Amino acid sequence: MSRCLLDGSVAAVVGGATGIGRGVVDRFVEEGARVAVLDLDTSPLDDLASDRPAAVITVTGDASEPSATAALVDATVGAFGAIDTLVCCAGRFDFHAPIESLAPTELSAAFDEIFAVNVKSMVLAVRAAAGELRRQHGSVILTLSSSAFHPEGAGVLYGASKWAGRGLVAHLARELAPDVRVNGVAPGGTVRTSLSGLASLGEVRTVEDVPGRTQRLAAGNLLGQAAAPNDQAGPFVFLASPALSPFVNGAVVNSDGGRGDPIDYHPPVPINTQGGLRAGGS
Predict the structure, then answer these.
(1) Sheet strands side by side (includes 252-255)
(2) pTM value?
(3) pLDDT, tens digit, 9 for 90 and up, residues 101-160
């Protein structure tokens, strides 16, 4: 029997109960890892623990609070003895809100909320796990977005938070070297997630509530497909595996299907070497 890519390894996943995070957890378990998951949503956490009882433990908490990320590290080490990989997937979305549409007090609250979840939770998780990761010569994988490269697909608040995450990859890769590798994955829009709006703006929607989203996502990449969470999990396995990516550090893997409009392909017209174009055939 062939050895799985993550056999014997231990991962701590922040925001792993739903969406891309859940896809990563499932794939890591299939590749032989044991996983501890921190999330705020108790119902999907319960589902995860029920689905993966032998390989997954769960911790309920707000990833933007230091006590929650500390609890994740303690629970992971207590249950599995180590942490080889830290994956950060927690996120909130701004639903394209233009800053001029928000009153200054609304804008301030929305900024604080989205940066707390999308950026601060990563910093807190890395800080909490750094000692264990250094001991294991492990890796950190931060979940970014195609919005970390392109000013489209989101508003300025979400986009700026993802650009900040891209900066974290670069700075932490330097700061934690040579003991810990730090990389990122930048997925494009993905269906079947629970990415929700900002409570500070009164949003109760998730991105799945937006009509026509699947068709729009498929039309926005060169592959003409809308990715699902399991489609995004492979790059995380690659970056977590010291066998596959031992020399990859400070990198971001773009998993967005390719940006831009497809080029309509027309077979080349055969050329008559004696001059002019042939009417057809060869």
Answers:
(1) 56-60, 34-39, 10-14, 85-88, 139-143, 181-187, 252-255
(2) 0.92
(3) 999 999 999 999 999 999 999 999 999 999 999 999 999 999 999 999 999 889 999 999
How far CA 76 is from CA of 35, 93, 141, in Å, comes to 8, 28, 17
Half-sphere exposure of 216 (CA within 13 A, CB side): 9
**CA–CA dist 95, 219 (Å, integer):** 19
Angle at 26 between CA 218 and CA 8, to 5 degrees: 140
Provide the 3-class DSSP secondary structure of residue 59: strand
Indicate the length of the chain as a whole number: 282
Give yes or no: 158 in active site.
yes
The dihedral through the CA atoms of 108, 159, 59, 76 has a sign that is negative
Domains of the chain: 10-255 (3.40.50.720)
In terms of Cβ atoms closer than 10 Å to its own Cβ (0-12, 13-18, 19+), residue 170 is: middle
Record the tokens describing residue 165, joined without a space: 């995450």
Catalytic residue among 80, 95, 158, 236: 158
Q: Kindly calculate the radius of gyration of the chain based on its CA atoms and give it in whole angstroms.
A: 21
* Residue linked to tokens 């971001």: 252
Alpha helices (H) in the chain, listed in sequence order: 19-30, 42-51, 66-80, 104-115, 121-136, 156-175, 213-219, 229-240
Residues 53-63: what's their mean pLDDT?
97
